[in-house]
Amino acid sequence: MLINRKQELNLLDNLYRSDRAEMYVLYGRRRVGKTELLREFCAGKPHIFFIATLSSDNEQLANFSQQIYAFNHVEVPEGFTFPSWDAAFRALAELAVNDAHAPNGHDGHERPVVILDEFTYLISGNKAIPSIIQKVWDALLKNTRIMLVLCGSYIGMMETEILGYRAPLYGRRTASTLLLPLDLPSTALFFPDYSADEQFLAWAVLGGMPYYLNTFNRRQTVMENTLTHILRARTGTLYNEPRLLLMEELREPRNYFSILRAMAQGRTRMNEITLASGVPEITSVARYLDILQQMRLVTRHVPVTENQPDKSKKGLYRIDDHFLRFWFRYVHPNQASLDLGLDDIIFKKRIQPNLDDFVSSCFEEAARAHFAKLARTGQLSFIPERIGGWWDRVTEINVVAYSETDKTALIGECKWSVNPIGINVLEHLKAQAQTMLQGTPIQTIQYALFSRSGFTAAMERQAAAESISLITVKEMVTPA
Predict the structure, then answer these.
(1) Higher model confidence: residue 303 or residue 101?
(2) pLDDT for position 239
(3) Which of 1-5, 158-162, 171-175, 288-292 has the lowest mean pLDDT?
(4) What is the pLDDT of residues 45-66, one digit of tens each?
(5) CA-to-CA separations, 446 to 24, 330, 409, 463, in angstroms, rounded
(6) What secondary structure does DSSP assign to 204-249, as a single string?
(7) What is the sign of the dihedral through the CA atoms of 287, 319, 52 and 20?
């Protein structure tokens, strides 16, 4: 099920309608839906969809050769293969030749689409492939109407070996997309029968990865799905998912696991992560965190008013992926018990009592995304340059949209609570704002409150009088 990838599909369709050769690079984390997006795009178009594997280079070449031959022929000779990758890529120039007997019903007036999925597997087996493509592209393919798509999951390798300044293919791509997880309103579409609270809870546990969202049964509650698919050691589809993915991508998974577990338990500063993870040197932890950031698993955050974010000593590290955060907080530390079949007990004793605390951090993240959506749709009175949080040693403001140019900030407080928000929360936020104002050029402050359970009548009256935004979970999960 492909949900809300309209922008990416529109880009692909525009490239397809162009009158020139196209080299499109699509990359992003595993499970984010790259292959599903490309299959949707290819439907009804003449195409080759080659998915690389971890098999030998010769076997990859043979499989690719047979797909090329099958494009314009009914039968493929047994054992057919091009003598080299150079020859195989050169053969792509002939794909659009008219052939009334083409088995997939295309004709020479349609442009061919060639998908090289899991492209980083090809590079791992033969590091010369980007250089070979560059040579053939410059000499031949750029003068055809081919649409070549290079798709990969190893973000660091794609950015270095394909998009990087020193990469052989630098300057050849005509477009590229880093495919990100779906946003909160899009994930809600997977569960149309859930309440707004349940839709938010599903996003808090799974994040925006389509594969994980499709795993949950919409006829079961989030908690029932969590037990069935995440906590059941023998049958849970997602029980070992993070372990398998990280072990495939990382050379020293044990140290990364220790670091991610420390972060999931609430350690966010470099020295805290170092002590809690047991990794002996802070320089090693810094290197591991840098790699996790390249993988788009971890982000370093600083207060939005910092003038030099890269040099700020206030940086905090947080796990971006919700499911990874959930897994390292609740599954990884309890795996010995879960392997014994104690999933119900673990859920009742170790997850359920502090699940609201886990979800509250996701609520703050959703509030920042909501501010960004308001800015994109022109619903703010200023143009923010940064959206994030603000903190010092004693004060923390959940969400801030900040414009140094306009000297304006919109600040918000988030409450994932069963109680409606009252005036006391607003007064507390106003006091925090005075602390934030010190040492900044901010002259105008606007306020917003985010609530799981609505607002008191007194708070609604005061909000109307002071033009304060009151935002509920239902608004946050509703698509724009």
Answers:
(1) 303
(2) 96
(3) 1-5
(4) 999 999 999 899 999 999 999 9
(5) 42, 37, 6, 11
(6) HHHTT-HHHHHHS-TTS-HHHHHIIIII-TTT-TTTTHHHHHHHHH
(7) negative
117 and 60 inside one domain: yes
d(CA 105, CA 100): 8
In 147-193, which ranges are E strands? 147-152, 175-178
Model confidence at 97: pLDDT above 60: no
In a domain, 312, yes or no: yes
pTM summary value: 0.91
Report pLDDT digits (tens) over 393-408.
889 999 999 999 999 9
Handedness of CA 378, 380, 381, 386 (dihedral sign): negative
Task: Give the mean pLDDT of the chain.
Answer: 92
Positive or negative, the CA dihedral 117, 325, 453, 409 is: negative
| The total number of structural domains that make up the chain | 3
Give one word for 222, left, alpha or beta, with left for phi > 0 and alpha for psi -120 to 50.
alpha
Maximal C-alpha separation, the chain: 79
Residue type, 48: I
pLDDT at 104: 47
Q: Which two tokens stand for residue 367?
A: 């509030």
Neighbouring residues of 206: CB distance < 8 A, sequence distance ≥ 6: 187, 212, 213, 215, 216, 322, 323, 326
Closest alpha carbon to 33 in 242, 207, 160, 185 = 207
**Residue 418: CA count within 13 A, CB half-sphere:** 1
Q: Both 353 and 383 in a single domain?
A: no
Residue pair 93/141 in contact by the 8 Å Cβ criterion: yes
Burial of 445 (0-12, 13-18, 19+ CB in 10 A): middle
80-85: long-range pairs with CB below 8 Å, 24+: 85/61, 85/126, 85/128, 85/129, 85/132
Examine the pLDDT at 244 and tell me if it is beyond 60: yes
Would you say residue 1 lies in a domain? Answer: no
Say if residue 348 is in the same domain as residue 370.
no
The torsion of the CA quartet 152, 157, 160, 162, rounded to 10 degrees, works out to -30
CATH of the domain at 141: 3.40.50.300
Distance CA 362, CA 264 (A): 12
Query: Using an 8 Å Cβ cutoff, are 264 and 328 in contact?
Result: yes
3-state secondary structure of 391: strand
